[in-house]
């Protein structure tokens, strides 16, 4: 014995019922209007036509003439009634077409409202809040299945991001242990009382330099992974001007070694309020590293006797850090790739080989994690213009006081 099961309430079934009922109502309304028009035409046709002779026919010829006249009047009446019926039907069809479109739009909007809600909720979810779910409510139909499928996809993405973050962090930390051991072994070997051959000492210095480079590369991996996939905790209000000034002061020796000049633009050169504090909110460690990378890039990738332009501005709801450097004329197509990991413009642009190719990619990742952007432009006169835009924050109360 087969058990009867109630059909599932699918979106297709609901569309069928709703639109079927809509067109049925439209057809009923059209028939009612056309019948009313037809009844009006029938009543007109039953009335005596104007100009009817009042006298009765008395002869056969007069009767024949009377019949022919009546037939002509009847044909004219039928033609007028047909035209009236056709015009009424056309008007009724036009009215019902408009009504059907309006009703169809309203009903379709109501039916598709859950899909719009799912689309809006999906757009709000990004890499920073993959833990959120749609959690759609309603009958078990296609819309509910779609929302559940998206939730499953978000869960898999969250697990994948978490696994990637754990892998990068664990691999970097695990690799630091043998690096420290290797560096300590070199120091112990060089510290022995026996004379160390010059070739061995040179090789040890070369190995120590390479180990330092690998250590910086691992630190860059950790910072990049944290900026791209880590949760931004410990948000505080920061001044881009203060952090950039501190970064410049910490690198005074490098600036003097390369004979660089640090300057600030005039108010006409940079939109906004030049030299303001440019307050923003974010993680102090990440934003400090972001600014340090920009300043290091400006010092390292510059020509001898060049200049560094530094400005912080606030324009509406955006706080900006602008850093311009001198140098040769660059290709904008190559500059656009600098925000990607391990992208360089060539060894001739660097004074040393200690660049890991992660500096500007970390800057882009930190800016994106804070809801900002990184804009890199090749200057027509040579060099690079770096603009970091972050959401502006209100001046802290203690600073304003």
Automatic annotation (TrEMBL):
Its EC number is 2.7.13.3. Residues 109-162 form the HAMP domain. It is an enzyme of class 2 (transferase). Residues 170-394 form the Histidine kinase domain. It comes from the Bacteria. The chain crosses the membrane at residues 12-33, 85-108. GO terms for molecular function: kinase activity. Keywords: Kinase, Membrane, Phosphoprotein, Transferase, Transmembrane, Transmembrane helix, Two-component regulatory system. Pfam families: HAMP, HATPase_c, HisKA. It is found in: Cell membrane. Coiled coil: none annotated. CDD domains: HAMP, HATPase, HisKA. Its main location: membrane. SMART domains: HAMP (SM00304), HATPase_c (SM00387), HisKA (SM00388). It catalyses: ATP + protein L-histidine = ADP + protein N-phospho-L-histidine. PANTHER family: SENSOR HISTIDINE KINASE TRCS (PTHR45436:SF5), SENSOR HISTIDINE KINASE YKOH (PTHR45436). This is histidine kinase. It comes from Streptosporangium jomthongense.
